[in-house]
Queue: 3 jobs
Job 1
Amino acid sequence: MLVNMNDILLPAKAGGYGVGFFNAVNAEMARAVIETAEELKAPVMVGTAEVLLPAMELERVAEYLIPMAQKASVPVCVHYDHGLTFERCMQALRLGFTSVMYDCSTASYEENASNIAEMVKICHAMGVTVEGELGHVGDNSGAGKLENPSDYFTKPDTAVDFVNRTGVDSLAVAVGNAHGDYAFPPKLDFERIDAISKMTNIPLVLHGGSGLSDLDFQTAVKLGVSKVNIFTDIDKAGKRGIEAGIRAGARSMFELIPYEVAEMKKVVEEKISLFGSRGKA
């Protein structure tokens, strides 16, 4: 069933478990996520991000994701992640996404708060939920890499003000996490997660989940992270599946698809079980 983020994350926060958000840039990824969630009777979030649109345009993503979510036997939130522009977020709303992240984290604090408050007003009038980001989660490499990531960590006192001013439904925090592959094991600031969670009392979001240890995930969820974003791990799993299919003698894309989906489903099952959302639908 198609639901919004609050329908999934508020029970997760109350129940002390986490929910995976998986980017799905093609129908095979979407199948892997939703089929596995149904098999495990787990709520799940699925969608795409603005940076991924070159792989599959937003309108095309909506064409396969919305119907799949509607037909699912478990709660599925279709979320537009890291929306960088107001116009793209509005497009996601028109296409039927039930949740959006408007990422203004690189703007000034005042501009970030003002933009998110406006987005919340629009989305809440439509029954759509909003995720904001405070601090800034950079990348592990490339143009988004931060020289001193701790300079951009989320401050608990500021988070309280941000939540009160915007009415945002969930908050992405910068606590030592980063997008993409980690060159070295990350060191998450668990005390910061705990403080922000207790002071804001809303679901927290951990971006850059691929590559963290099982203990990192379990501790973060225990301290208040309700949504964990995964893309790199499932993306690499799809590639492994294709390679396995080629080794097994598959001679066409048609023959490769089952291998691709099966390998991605392993990752989705692992994360759902690790976050504690198995059987929570």
Job 2
Amino acid sequence: MKIKANGIDIEVEDTGDGTPGEQRPAVLLIMGLGMQLIAWPPELVQALVDAGYRVIRMDNRDVGLSQHFDQLGTPNLLWQGLRLKLGLTPRSPYSLADMARDAIGVLDALQVDKAHVVGVSMGGMIAQRVAIAAPERVVSMTSIMSSSGARGLPQARPEVMRALMGRPASSALNDVLDHYVRLFKAIGSPGFPMTDAQMRERIEAGVQRSFYPVGTQRQMLAIVADVGRAGELARVQSPTLVLHGKADPLVPYPCGEDTARRIRGAKLVGVEGMGHDLPPGVVGRLLEPLIPHLRAA
């Protein structure tokens, strides 16, 4: 369903019945760069519902069925990356703080006073921003395969960056699917491999729902431009769980360690063999610490 949040249109899936004051505690799930709400594995969503939670998923701005920002144009990622290397702050058409306000706006629109906030990759960064900006709204925070954005942290392997920055050979469906299969192979979990057919099925579902790569580029620039978040994480008051794959080739494991170190009382759980994706085997490993974390908070 489409709702108005932070002044823009956001697509939301909500397992709640829409009754104001619903008693089940809410879990807000925030997806990563260029990914849509359907990228949350159904078995993870169902496990949270079975555990007694109301699960709210959202398409971030500029992706999926949420509002696109064509008027902002195509960003020059190479130029803005050069500014960052020169010690200058990159310029982005919107910020991760704006995207955090979108998430808070979703809670407002659904009349949810407080929620557990769970984010993956860029979504983890947005979750961190929500916890910084609105601690009174966050029952607990979980940052999965994400980063504080601090300078000096290990970077993705060169071959992974080439896959991330690459483009499909054409806009034909098979070329698009081939491109993203290569990308997900590059960033995937070596301990929990998926077949090409499994990847292709997941990717095609997303492409058929919405394919808007320029929005992903603007989101990427918002990540690069968020240079001050690391220093603000000490302000996070919410009970925090940091989940990170020890085999993550895109956002290496020390990034998870750094995030946990910067948040007072945060618990870090590393998952052997997990890369930068959510295959079926990984979901169970994440739920083992996640559900007790939610219950404890």
Job 3
Amino acid sequence: MVSCEGEKNESKAASAVPLVNVQTTKAARRLYSDRVEALGTVRALEAIDLTSSVTDRVAEMFFEDGDSAKEGDLLVRLEDAAERAAFEAAKSTLTEQEREIERLRGLVANGAVSQVRLQEYETQQEIAARRVEEAQAQIDDRNIRAPFDGVLGFRRVSQGALVEPGDLIATFDVLDPIKLDFTVPETFLSSLKKGLQIEAHTEAYPGDDFSGKVVQLDTRVNPVTRSITARAEIPNPDKRLRPGMLMTTVLENNPRNSVSVPERALVSVQSTHFVFVLDEKTSPPSVVRASVELGRRQPGYVEILNGVEEGAVVVTDGLIGLVDGAEVKVTGEFKGPAEPYQPSDQ
């Protein structure tokens, strides 16, 4: 009887052991990739400084600060009265030469004038035609037009101002798309290629990501920094990005869709890592310790290369004192990693 009583007491004591309260989540697949961050500078897709090739006064201006212009639009006209007069004189001379040639051709046909005389006038006609072209070029030099579709910057001169070759009239840029030049270590060169997707962000627009792709690599590696310059193109339809801005670039390389668990589910002992997997076949449910092989990480999560299958339920909270085979009580599900601490939010 004493023996039977002892067995009952031990059974009661075992049943009185409290279950461990835990929270769980399912191991799911997430996209992992090698990430490289680099600083880059925004540049216009095309950019020029509008200048004059001749010295003259500004007669008319056909744009305001920040205007858009199409290729061929007239932006600035310089004084060209003398050039137009020379053009009209050259045209008159050309017309006279053409009329004289027509007259001589009739005389040559009748034998009244030699062929040599006609050829002399035809030569003079060619010279007159070249003078007309020269006069037209002089006029064109005084008409400054948009070389491509783009956006104008601030006007740097006013109507009536005297401009000389090299004087800046305005900047002219193509802002959609824009180029982003950034440098990455040479060790990344083997996997850096055209078409590689990037993400970039700037302090000017916190929280906004700008996506683009690599379009070209420099032909040389910098021997001092051992880095190479890459160029990406980023769509910029709203023209928020401007040349000269500093951006942080993120390159995604070697993407892989792998089994993933929250970092907080990991228990590490020296170089060994394991998680507790919920065994729901028992009543109450128990946990099994499983060794795992880790891969890449991203904020709040870690890639599992081996040890846990997709869909396995792992413990994320209540790990303190948890041992292999312990019976547990699931009190909730993992909601997600904590937000990073931002001192500015305080």
